[in-house]
Automatic annotation (TrEMBL):
<keyword id="KW-0862">Zinc</keyword>
<keyword id="KW-0479">Metal-binding</keyword>
<dbReference type="GO" id="GO:0008270">
    <property type="term" value="F:zinc ion binding"/>
</dbReference>
<feature type="region of interest" description="Disordered">
    <location>
        <begin position="207"/>
        <end position="227"/>
    </location>
</feature>
<dbReference type="Pfam" id="PF16158">
    <property type="entry name" value="N_BRCA1_IG"/>
</dbReference>
<dbReference type="InterPro" id="IPR009060">
    <property type="entry name" value="UBA-like_sf"/>
</dbReference>
<dbReference type="InterPro" id="IPR013783">
    <property type="entry name" value="Ig-like_fold"/>
</dbReference>
<dbReference type="Pfam" id="PF14555">
    <property type="entry name" value="UBA_4"/>
</dbReference>
<dbReference type="GO" id="GO:0005776">
    <property type="term" value="C:autophagosome"/>
</dbReference>
<protein>
    <recommendedName>
        <fullName>Nbr1 FW domain-containing protein</fullName>
    </recommendedName>
</protein>
<dbReference type="InterPro" id="IPR032350">
    <property type="entry name" value="Nbr1_FW"/>
</dbReference>
<dbReference type="GO" id="GO:0016236">
    <property type="term" value="P:macroautophagy"/>
</dbReference>
<dbReference type="GO" id="GO:0000407">
    <property type="term" value="C:phagophore assembly site"/>
</dbReference>
<feature type="domain" description="Nbr1 FW">
    <location>
        <begin position="94"/>
        <end position="191"/>
    </location>
</feature>
<keyword id="KW-0863">Zinc-finger</keyword>
<keyword id="KW-0968">Cytoplasmic vesicle</keyword>
<dbReference type="InterPro" id="IPR039517">
    <property type="entry name" value="C6orf106_UBA-like"/>
</dbReference>
Length: 227
């Protein structure tokens, strides 16, 4: 970009602050174009793109544009601003928040997701551990493609720590390029000697009319057992 096309970011944000007192989207689009100046000839579609990506917050949208637009003033979206898959967390299928689990126990955490967008999730998406307590062997696991307006259960095998206490593990879906999308999802457990999660998961997976044997004293989900 030539010198006369450089963006004065401080000036842009100062002008943006004077245009904040509106929620009208058409006005925000015009203000977006006006703040950056006519010499950039910002396309309407570009204005809408950056405003939508920032929940129609004008200063935030202008800041995002300046971060990228200073080197690409034509307004083509960088990878981090490309349209991402849509996802809504529906419910915990197993392991509600704060459910008790015995120490050193293998269990399955299952979440249910909904694709709220109008396009299928692309191939290569995966669910990734983001922060907190990593209760799994791996940090990420592949998830299947999900068609629009459909739901999918995603399960991850986890292991409770040996020490008693509360453990929180935050996860999020990612594209094949490693860009997170959708809501953060959690697994929150209480590790306690009286935890009954292993028993309830046995019962849920047992054939109809059968229940775990009362003679069985060994925890079948214990990491000390061979699988």
């Amino acid at each position: 970009m030539s010198e006369n096309m450089d963006i004065d970011i401080d000036g842009v944000l100062a002008r943006a602050m004077s245009c904040m007192a509106t929620n009208d989207r058409e006005t925000l689009i015009k203000n977006f174009q006006a703040v950056l100046g006519e010499h950039l000839a910002i396309a309407r579609e570009t204005c809408i793109f950056f405003l939508e990506m920032n929940n129609w917050n004008l200063p935030a949208a202008l800041g995002a544009y300046c971060d990228y637009g200073s080197s690409n003033w034509q307004g083509m979206a960088p990878p981090e601003y490309q349209k991402l898959p849509s996802m809504q967390f529906v419910q915990d299928i197993t392991i509600g928040e704060g459910e008790s689990v015995a120490p050193n126990t293998r269990f399955t955490k299952t979440w249910r997701f909904l694709n709220t967008g109008d396009e299928a999730w692309p191939q290569g998406c995966y669910i990734k551990f983001m922060e907190g307590n990593q209760l799994t062997e791996l940090r990420q696991y592949p998830v299947p493609q999900l068609m629009p307006a459909t739901m999918q259960d995603v399960s991850v095998v986890m292991f409770s720590p040996n020490e008693k206490g509360i453990y929180q593990s935050r996860w999020q879906l990612n594209t094949i390029d490693g860009i997170p999308f959708g809501e953060s999802i959690w697994c929150i457990i209480v590790v306690d000697d009286n935890g009954i999660l292993d028993i309830t998961q046995q019962m849920a997976s047992a054939p109809l009319g059968h229940s775990p044997s009362s003679k069985q004293s060994e925890n079948p989900f214990s990491m000390n057992n061979n699988f």
